[in-house]
Design goal:
The structure is a single chain. By secondary structure, the chain is an alpha+beta fold. The relative contact order is 0.10. It contains 9 helices and 23 strands.
Length: about 400
């Protein structure tokens, strides 16, 4: 195998399978995923786009970019002694990634308990991890058996990915393999009837297709020859060609990860985070918006008026300021009771705030389009809140 030979040469043989999606030299040298890798595969029942998001805390912004494009997710947890505990502690990445997945709109989650072969396929270890994760994930908003699915496996040996052969595992686990569980995912709702929206995740130029914009179609559809508006640039371009899963197509619709070849726009004016839209119904832009947020236990200090945070929205990462504290849900006064003009917002709270950014960003109201109305806030390298947009200025 090509990857096995190349990884052995630099002393990273155990990472050979990761090299399928970790394509950059620095990722392979360091042995960690740094950017979002993309690939495609098919099962008996589904055709899927796989986004491999990084797990290391230094690259959480890239993880957010990948997760914001996902309908469903697979959270890979190590069952090796000490490794699960490390990720599940207060500031561990297992908890942060779980919170972000739910906040960014992931509705169904497979929790792969990997490396279970390292603890001799222990049923006790599997059930212990499952119990702790199930309790935590329910607190984040997932609805138990409807949304959460636990699968034991070994990624290195391939056990229980496609088939199950190990007699020790088979003696107590009779559930689905990973691929079988993927086939049981419920289809995501597609908003084909709404105005066209694509958040730009990449811009490149090639000899074969010319100037190309890549991204996931969140709503609507597009055909070759259509006019599209680049927002907030507010310039109109023409669609010269479309590719989905690296195949040329005449038509693409909501849910497709698409490469759109365009003309009549300068590559120097395009950037990641812009939107391609229907010129007749472009996405709104704003420098101020009102949102309902939920703060996490990772919030080290209360959010006060003027607090500086990083706004993460789709593929956008912009500095922002909490410009107004409008109201806070006061749990001590009963369900739904609010306290206006609070002095601060502490951890594990629900509040209504006004957020201000320097540059105009493209946003949708959550009530109009859920997937484009969600965002997260980070501070000092930690995700401290997630929210939904309720009003634009």
């Amino acid at each position: 195998m090509k990857y096995e030979k190349e990884s052995k040469q630099i002393g990273k043989q155990s990472f050979s399978y990761a090299w399928v999606l970790d394509e950059y030299d620095e990722e392979r040298q360091r042995g960690i995923t740094m950017d979002v890798g993309m690939n495609h595969f098919e099962t008996e029942k589904k055709r899927l786009t796989l986004l491999d998001a990084p797990g290391h805390r230094d690259f959480v912004p890239n993880m957010i970019t990948g997760t914001a494009q996902a309908d469903v997710a697979i959270l890979v947890i190590s069952a090796a002694t000490g490794e699960f505990e490390s990720g599940f502690q207060a500031d561990g990445q297992t908890k942060e990634h779980s919170l972000l997945a739910k906040a960014l709109g992931v509705a169904q989650l497979i929790i792969v308990i990997n490396k279970l072969d390292m603890v001799n396929w222990s049923e006790e270890r599997f059930e212990s991890i499952k119990e702790k994760m199930n309790a935590f994930l329910r607190q984040t908003g997932f609805v138990g058996a409807q949304d959460l699915f636990f699968v034991p496996c070994s990624g290195l040996s391939g056990e229980n990915l496609v088939t199950r052969k190990d007699p020790t595992l088979s003696s107590w686990y009779t559930g689905s393999t990973l691929v079988q569980q993927i086939d049981l995912f419920k289809p995501a709702q597609r908003f084909v009837d709404k105005p066209f929206r694509v958040c730009v995740s990449d811009v490149y130029k090639s000899q074969a297709s010319g100037l190309t914009i890549a991204g996931k179609i969140e709503s609507g559809f597009v055909t070759t020859g259509d006019n599209l508006m680049v927002v907030p640039l507010n310039e109109v371009c023409v669609v010269k060609g479309l590719r989905v899963n690296e195949e040329s197509v005449p038509f693409a619709s909501a849910g497709d990860n698409v490469d759109i070849s365009v003309a009549n726009v300068d590559i120097s004016a395009l950037s990641i985070g812009q939107f391609l839209c229907d010129p007749e119904a472009p996405i709104k832009t704003a420098t101020r918006f009102v949102a309902t947020i939920i703060t996490f236990s990772t919030l080290a200090y209360p959010l006060t008026l003027g607090a500086q945070v990083d706004l993460h929205y789709q593929t956008i990462n912009e500095p922002a300021v909490i410009s107004k504290l409008i109201s806070l849900v006061d749990k001590s006064r009963g369900k739904g009771a609010k306290r206006n003009n609070p002095r601060c917002i502490t951890e594990s709270s629900q509040a209504e705030v006004e957020v201000t950014v320097i540059k105009p960003v493209c946003l949708e109201l959550y009530s109009d389009m859920k997937q484009l109305g969600r965002f997260s806030l980070r501070e000092s390298g930690r995700t401290v809140a997630a929210g939904v947009v309720t009003q634009l200025f």
